[in-house]
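User: Fold this one for me? It's Signal peptidase I.
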Amino acid sequence: MSSARKERNGLVDWIKAIGIALIIAIIIKKFLIEQYVVYGESMMPTIQNGNRLIVNKIGYEIGNPERFDLIVFKANPKEDYIKRVIGLPGDHIAYKDDKLYINKKPVDEPYLKEFKRFAGNRTLTGNFTLEEITGHDTVPKGKIFVLGDNRLHSIDSRHIGFVEMTDIVGEANIRYWPVDEMKVFNGFKKE
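Assistant: Here's what I get for Signal peptidase I.
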């Protein structure tokens, strides 16, 4: 075999390899994971403006969101929001004296401890019941109730209503930027 033919075969092999790698990357981006840059302060201090996240897009194709997951969802045709799942279908949600009650039982929110320290004596969430702000006694089937961790500066289910399960893009699993603040998010249990 001539050296020109070997070079051509080597070039064809490289083009094939690059083509296959691109196809795999497109499939991964389309169906499995997505990269997001966070704009705004609604999830502070958990997630800061400018943080970069990896969002698992396939997890909710297999299962359902769990309470306290960090999710990205289609808020409108132009914007995706990141918020924390607070209420699941069938849940009754209320806040009284800055304390979360789910189905009339108090629930701890450890992810708010740092923010409460900064807020001092200010109330973060405010008193409300689900019925007062949505007209529903419980979270309807096929929907969830979400809040930002920065309750004083978050547009969330208190303002936009319930989030349709079909509008969920995926779960924020990893903050990879800035590198020194890299973190794997695993809901309420491990934060």
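One thing worth pointing out: The chain has two domains: 1-33, 38-190.
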